[in-house]
Amino acid sequence: MRQLLASAVAAALLHISPTVILVKRPDAVQQLLPGADRFLARELHLSAHDAHRLHEVVDWSPEDGVLTFFVGKDGGKDVGTLEFVRVDTPHGPLEVAVGFTPERTVRGVIVTKATVESKPWVLAALQAGLTEHYRGLKLADAPGGAAAIKNRIADLPAYMAQEVDKGVARALVAYRDFYR
Amino acid sequence: MLYDLRRADARVKWLVTCLLATLGLGYLFGSWMVGLFSGFTPQSVAVTFASPEMHMAMPPASTMVMEHPMTLQEFGAHDHYTVDRNLLVQDTHVHVPIYGIIAAALSLVVLGLDLARRWGYALITLLFAAPWLDFAGMWLTKLVSSGFAVLTVAGGWAMGFAYTIVTGVALWQMWRPTPGGVP
Question: pTM of whole model > 0.90?
């Protein structure tokens, strides 16, 4: 009986919170690759060595070992590149879209997915101006959005901001090391 | 058998009624959640659970680059709620024990009903088979083919059907008015 109760409590605590879409992917693409009328998906099927290297640096492996960059073109002109990075948190996954300019700096960051549970915390962090602190980041920079807004938000939004930082850091390293 | 819900103390009947009502509420919200995040057709379930077609079983010896054009609309395909393998492992770990406990609780209600033995066996089997079908469908959709999504849909309906039968029969047998007697 005790085991049954323990299982029930564990299940209640660990229950997965469903994903909610904060910004639809096509809308994020239009904001982060403004003016693009043509798109390419560049999929890098990582070798074991490269996957290990990426994992060592940012503690992350893309799903199925495939790193995808979305390239936007306006006619023949390069508009920029975009990555969607997933961050698994104890409160369910987040998805962060990170857009780069052709000059290889961060154009913008949008949190596209959260979960029913984490959504209010993510929104609180966004309302505190989290994503403004990523604009213009260079590839060698460390994202510091969470630290910049820490004093203006509660603990859980601050925690989610750190998770968004983590997603941006992954995108920066992936772009720096693998996008040619 | 000594355990007979028709003749049970009214407090036991009330307990069973509350249990069934609570489970029913859970199932109602479960259906709502399925509607919000997956859908009720095999096609929408397949989109939720199937793995991307580009998956390679083994990493290549050196990193390979593949490029293909996309339309803006195609970005929207990723906005459907999806469950990857890791999430499905967690989901299975969390849900299967709870489904087992719910099936066991409903089976205990079945044991107290005035039913032929073969109907008792059939209902208990259905109560446990439904979640098995549900999760077998999810895993087979992910690992083998999208066509198996139909098993998940069947499992979900079977769960609802079994619950409805048990609840209907139990409430009828426990609370139906008896001529000149206390229910």
Answer: no
